[in-house]
Each structure stands twice: as structure tokens, then as C-alpha cells.
């Protein structure tokens, strides 16, 4: 019989981080991943480690991660995750953009975040490579970026060294309950028993949660990114926009990693694997050029795509399940999961060891969508 104290479904950065922190506590942990470690959005995103632009319900998690976890993460995991804390410019080209950013800034400063609105001259002083079309921005000096592929790999490697068992290429089919409690997960090959079960499988979490009558309202959205050839060192900030249609940074290697939306996401939902379409990279590039024209002649060396599990209210579900003791859910991160993953890993560890998390997550409960009587 396959048994461990904790069973995690999903080998993305959230699953790997949680496995690491649980094993650090001395618990036996098994992780089951349908495909490969980091196959989804965990290793296919723009790498932002940002606090600005977040919903007030998840902002405290991001602030905790930036203050307490990211600065020492490379040392703790014994692998360079290429974390830079050099600020974040969220750019505006129109008065409507400025209004969006002002609202985001006001809500963030109310929670204690150091972020402010700046004009075009100060934007150019911080980053002289940006387009003259940029008329202002929000500026958060404590934001930054890291390498999502290396971060996911670092958590995975350190967790393995601490005894975590990772099983890939195996699909979880249903959760088994005994006397109302979640006690096991049946896969297409075996049955795995555990005292606590975490479902952290992105959009596919719903397939498994349905076996115990749960549902998280979320859509599957295509995330796309591209990498340029190496360029001379220009800047270290993270860039974004008011409408979140473009984001990116320059990597340690010198290449630029950019993400964006092509506008044809709705037509990709039938694909089993996320794929970059023939028109999507050029569409993203046209958007980038409006903000960053200096890269007009830079060659794109590769593109990739991944799925975002977009929640109905655009913040994640991080919660124990009252109706099914022993079951915890972490999904619907809406493309915001990477930057908060170290803190989420610690929060989930607290939830599964019956401790109070260091950040209040009551607003992220699984049952917040229930009809109110």
C-alpha cells in the first residue's frame, strides 16, 4: 500500500514549494504530477515577483513573500533563482490607464505598500529605454522578478533531497473518503493513502474535486511568453502595464523575457497542450513595441505557452475544506501564483499542520462563492 503523511496532487511551483516546507518539518510527502514537474504555468510565466497591482485580498501574501522569503530563497534552496529586487514600473499611455493605476495604487498604499504614481519624466529617469508614448506609471521600488523555471526546479531538487517522493506521468482520478474524511487518491495506476491531501493542480483541480462534490469557478486561459536573443544590459526593473497586456524583464543572461495576450485565448481551449499559434507571437510583439521600441531589431529565439487557471473573482483559492476533513485546495491563481509561491507554500504547510498561517487568508476560502441565504 502506498502511504505518506501528506499527498500533493500537482507538481507546479506551489506543489513543489509546499512539499519542501512540509518535508522541512519532517513529514513524509508524496507528489503526483500528471505530466512533468513545472509543466504548466509555473515554469512558463514572465517571472514577476510583484506586490503592486494585486487585489487587496492577496496583497498581504505578496508583501510577506517579498519581505521575508524571496531575499534569502537562493541561499535556502542552494540554487540561484535569479531574484532581483529592483522595482516595478506599471506603465500608462492614456488617461484611462492612469485612472486604473491610481485605483490600484490607492488600494495598495492603504495596506502599507510603498507604491506611488509618477509622471513621464520620472519614468524616463528610471528607465530611459521606454517609448515616449508612456505618460506615467505606478512605481513600486520593492517589487522585482525571478526565474520561474529555476525556482520551480530549486524547490523540487531541495524537496527531493529532503525525502519527498515525486511521481510523474500519473494522473489522479478521484479522491477516496472514509467516514467523510479524505484518505486517499486513486490514480490511473495505483491508490495513494495519506493523512492530508492537497489538490494544487491548476485548472485540472476541478476534475479531481468533483469526485467529492466540490467546484471552483475558473476558466483556462492561455499564457504566452517569448525570449529574445541576449542584449546589452539595459535595466533590472520589472515592467508591466495598466491593463496587464504586456509584462517582462531582462534576465541575468541578457535576454528579455516578455509575456502578453494575443486576444485569441478563447479559441485555444480545445487544445490538450498549450501551444503558441502562428499569429500570437507577432501580436504580442506589436504590443511590446508600443512600450519598448528599442528592441525593434531584436530576434525572438523561442516562444512558449502555458495555461492560467483564472478564477471568477481573480484571486486564488487557498483553503482547508470543512465538508471534507483532510482535504486542502490551492488553485485558481489567475496568473499571480509564481510571485507568492514561497509564502503560499508556507501557508499551506500551516493549514495542513493545524497551525494558524502567518497571513490571514479568510477571504481566499473555497466556499466564498456559495449563495448567501
Automatic annotation (TrEMBL):
Pfam families: DAO
Keywords from the UniProt entry: Oxidoreductase
Keyword Oxidoreductase assigned: yes
Domain of life: Bacteria
Entry keyword annotation includes Oxidoreductase: yes
Domain FAD dependent oxidoreductase span(s) in chain numbering: 6-351
Protein name according to UniProt: FAD-binding oxidoreductase
Native source organism of the sequence: Fusibacter paucivorans
Lineage of origin: Bacteria, Bacillati, Bacillota, Clostridia, Eubacteriales
Amino acid at each position: 500500500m502506498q502511504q505518506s503523511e501528506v499527498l500533493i496532487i500537482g507538481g507546479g511551483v506551489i506543489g513543489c514549494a509546499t512539499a519542501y516546507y512540509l518535508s522541512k518539518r519532517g513529514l513524509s510527502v508524496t507528489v503526483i504530477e500528471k505530466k512533468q514537474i513545472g509543466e504548466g504555468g509555473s515554469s512558463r510565466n514572465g517571472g514577476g515577483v510583484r506586490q503592486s497591482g494585486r487585489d487587496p485580498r492577496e496583497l498581504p501574501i505578496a508583501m510577506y513573500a517579498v519581505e521575508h522569503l524571496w531575499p534569502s530563497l537562493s541561499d535556502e534552496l542552494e540554487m540561484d533563482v535569479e531574484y532581483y529586487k529592483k522595482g516595478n514600473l506599471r506603465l500608462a499611455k492614456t488617461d484611462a490607464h492612469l485612472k486604473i493605476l491610481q485605483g490600484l495604487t490607492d488600494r495598495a498604499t492603504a495596506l502599507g505598500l510603498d507604491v506611488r504614481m509618477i509622471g513621464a519624466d520620472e519614468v524616463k529617469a528610471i528607465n530611459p529605454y521606454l517609448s515616449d508614448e508612456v505618460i506615467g506609471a505606478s512605481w513600486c521600488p520593492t517589487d522585482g522578478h525571478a526565474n520561474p523555471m529555476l525556482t520551480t526546479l530549486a524547490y523540487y531538487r531541495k524537496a527531493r533531497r529532503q525525502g519527498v517522493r515525486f511521481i510523474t506521468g500519473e494522473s489522479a482520478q478521484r479522491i477516496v473518503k472514509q467516514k467523510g474524511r479524505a484518505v486517499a487518491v486513486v490514480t490511473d495506476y495505483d491508490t495513494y493513502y495519506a493523512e492530508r491531501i492537497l489538490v494544487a493542480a491548476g485548472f485540472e483541480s476541478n476534475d479531481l474535486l468533483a469526485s467529492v462534490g466540490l467546484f471552483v469557478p475558473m476558466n483556462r486561459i492561455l499564457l504566452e511568453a517569448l525570449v529574445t536573443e541576449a542584449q546589452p544590459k539595459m535595466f533590472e526593473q520589472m515592467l508591466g502595464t495598466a491593463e496587464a497586456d504586456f509584462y517582462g524583464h531582462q534576465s541575468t543572461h541578457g535576454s528579455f523575457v516578455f509575456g502578453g495576450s494575443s486576444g485569441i485565448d478563447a479559441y485555444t481551449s480545445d487544445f490538450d497542450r498549450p501551444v503558441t499559434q502562428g499569429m500570437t507571437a507577432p501580436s504580442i510583439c506589436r504590443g511590446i513595441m508600443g512600450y519598448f521600441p528599442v528592441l525593434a531589431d531584436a530576434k525572438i529565439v523561442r516562444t512558449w505557452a502555458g495555461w492560467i487557471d483564472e478564477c471568477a473573482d481573480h484571486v486564488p483559492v487557498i483553503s482547508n475544506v470543512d465538508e471534507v476533513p483532510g482535504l486542502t485546495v490551492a488553485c485558481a491563481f489567475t496568473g499571480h501564483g509564481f510571485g507568492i509561491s514561497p509564502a503560499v507554500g508556507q501557508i499551506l504547510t500551516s493549514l495542513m499542520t493545524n497551525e494558524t498561517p502567518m497571513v490571514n487568508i479568510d477571504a481566499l476560502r473555497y466556499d466564498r462563492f456559495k449563495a448567501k441565504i
